[in-house]
Specification:
Layout lengths: L3 H15 L4 E6 L12 H5 L4 E7 L2 E6 L3 E6 L5 E5 L23 E7 L4 E5 L6 E6 L23 H8 L6 H6 L9 H11 L19 H19 L41 E6 L2 E6 L5
Antiparallel strand pairs: 1-6, 2-3, 3-4, 4-8, 5-7, 6-7, 9-10
Helix pairs in contact: 1-6, 3-6, 5-6
The protein binds a DNA duplex through α5.
DNA sequence: ATAGAGACCTGTGTGC
DNA sequence: TGCACACAGGTCTCTA
């Protein structure tokens, strides 16, 4: 799935399509994705005007004018595509193209907007889901109540990360994947951030903190690199590997900038390092790193 | 509390 | 060609 940069890229594509538009029709083609759709889902969404489209971690949020917010998670393989309707003034995207990898049989939800735009949610693995929540109580919703900090916010600081990491024996990779600590990093960007910081994914998370819980020099290196890699990826429109694409069907470019992810066996990209990118499995996921310059 | 494994589901690539 | 297996951007739940 999309990690934070991909979700943010999709949000930027969807905001001008949805904001101010009314959802005229909702075609829900199966009873569930990862979870059953909410009770009376289509009835609660149809007729609503979307006030704004925002993001929290890897969640896309559509605030509706009737007091509820539509929560969308893309899981591993979710995609959202915009098909500009004829006569639509609000939509400047290209045509929705099926042959870019989306399979029509996995088009599970179709939105029809008052502007004439059609928006299609496609998700072969169905690890994604859609929920509805009271906008006034959104932060108390179970999807968000235990969620960690936004990595691009000021709240993610070396001090914060060290305080959370103090005393932990879990490896850095698993620690950074834990959405209850920092929310939005995933398998790609954890590997890339650790590479940029020169930190081993196998190092104990607790070594980000001194005994009194204050940050070590490692935490001070890591935090700016987390932010930098996410910002770089957003600037490149995210990463397009297998099935992720933008709302307009085009691809992100950040996969070309991966230093380690999916580059097992290639020479380390760090200047002066003669190491080789290696792969190992942590938390049942592949980790890519250079054993020479990441310590 | 924390760590690790398994589960959810479909598609694709690899090797025999 | 067919088949088995490994692996894929996530996260929830269960067990020690």
């Amino acid at each position: 799935m999309p990690e934070l940069p991909e979700v943010e890229t999709i949000r930027r594509g969807l905001a001008p399509v949805f904001e101010g538009a009314r959802i005229m029709r909702l075609d829900v083609r199966r009873p569930d994705l990862r979870y059953p759709f909410p009770e009376r889902f289509a009835q609660r969404v149809c007729g609503q005007v979307v006030n704004w489209v925002f993001r929290r971690a890897k969640y896309l949020l559509f605030e509706l004018d009737g007091g509820e917010t539509l929560i969308v998670h893309l899981g591993m393989s979710g995609r959202i595509s915009v098909l500009a309707g004829s006569g639509s003034a609000a939509v400047s995207f290209g045509d929705y193209v099926y042959d870019t990898g989306a399979l029509p049989q996995h088009d599970h939800v179709v939105f029809e907007l008052s502007t004439g735009a059609r928006v299609i949610y496609n998700d072969p693995r169905r690890f994604g889901f859609m929920l509805l929540a009271d906008t006034a109580q959104l932060s108390q919703h179970r999807a968000f109540a235990g969620l960690g900090v936004e990595p691009l916010s000021e709240v993610l600081s070396p001090e914060f990360l060290a305080a959370k990491a103090a005393g932990r024996s879990a490896d850095l990779k698993s620690f950074l994947l834990d959405q209850r600590i920092v929310a939005g990093l995933g398998n790609i960007y954890v590997s890339e951030a650790l590479f940029r910081s020169g930190l081993s994914p196998r190092r104990a998370a607790g070594t980000l903190a001194r005994l009194d819980g204050t940050p070590t020099e490692r935490a001070r290196r890591l935090v700016p690199e987390i932010k930098a890699v996410l910002n770089d990826a957003i600037a490149a429109g995210g990463s397009s590997l297998r099935d992720y694409r933008h709302a307009d069907g085009t691809s992100g470019r950040f996969q070309e900038a991966f230093a380690v992810y999916d580059r097992e066996g290639e020479p380390c990209a760090r200047r002066g390092c003669t190491g080789t990118v290696r792969r190992l499995v942590q938390a049942q996921r592949s980790t890519f790193f250079c054993g020479s310059c990441q310590r």
